[in-house]
């Protein structure tokens, strides 16, 4: 979904609270990528069995060393919904001026 906001306050509110629709759907937006974005998709395996929220926080924290982890997730078995030890991450590895 592409959304246009006229005021910067509207953008910040949407980024923090998300976009809530009448049918209960919540979409968490993100800023557009710059033209020099360097996107890398990563497959994760042999992940530890721990609470999903803690695991996802740990993945993001660890991978942010290598760029901005703007999406992380875990895979579950389709039939049972049980976590199967694998996941994914998407990093933006663009070089930021002034960064080491």
Fold blueprint:
Layout: H1 8-17, E1 19-20, E2 26-27, E3 39-44, H2 52-63, E4 68-76, E5 83-92
Antiparallel strand pairs: 1-2, 3-5, 4-5
- Give the neighbour order of strands across the main sheet: 3-5-4
Helical proportion, percent range? 10-25%
Q: Total helix count?
A: 2
Low-confidence stretches: none
Question: What Rg, in angstroms, do the CA atoms define?
Answer: 16 Å
Query: Helix/strand-derived class?
Result: alpha+beta
Average predicted confidence as pLDDT: 87
**Beginning-to-end CA distance, first to last residue:** 35 Å
Shape: globular
In short:
This protein is α+β, with helices and mostly antiparallel strands and 100 residues long. The protein contains two helices and five strands.
Description of the structure:
The chain is of the alpha+beta class and 100 residues long. It is 22% helix and 29% strand. The chain contains 2 helices and 5 strands, in the order αβββαββ. The strands form 2 sheets. It has a 3-stranded antiparallel beta sheet, covered by helices on one side. Strands 1-2 form a two-stranded antiparallel sheet. The radius of gyration is 16 Å and the shape is globular. The chain starts with 7 loop residues before the first helix and ends in an 8-residue tail after the last strand.
């Amino acid at each position: 979904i592409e959304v246009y906001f006229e005021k910067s306050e509207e953008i910040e509110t949407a980024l923090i609270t998300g976009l809530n629709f009448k049918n209960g759907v919540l979409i968490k937006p993100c800023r557009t990528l710059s033209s020099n974005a360097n996107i890398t998709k990563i497959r994760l395996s042999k992940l530890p069995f721990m609470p999903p929220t803690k695991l996802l926080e740990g993945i993001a924290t660890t991978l942010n060393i290598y760029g901005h982890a703007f999406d992380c997730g875990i895979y579950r078995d389709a039939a049972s919904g049980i976590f199967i030890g694998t996941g994914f991450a998407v990093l933006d590895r663009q070089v930021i001026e002034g960064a080491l």
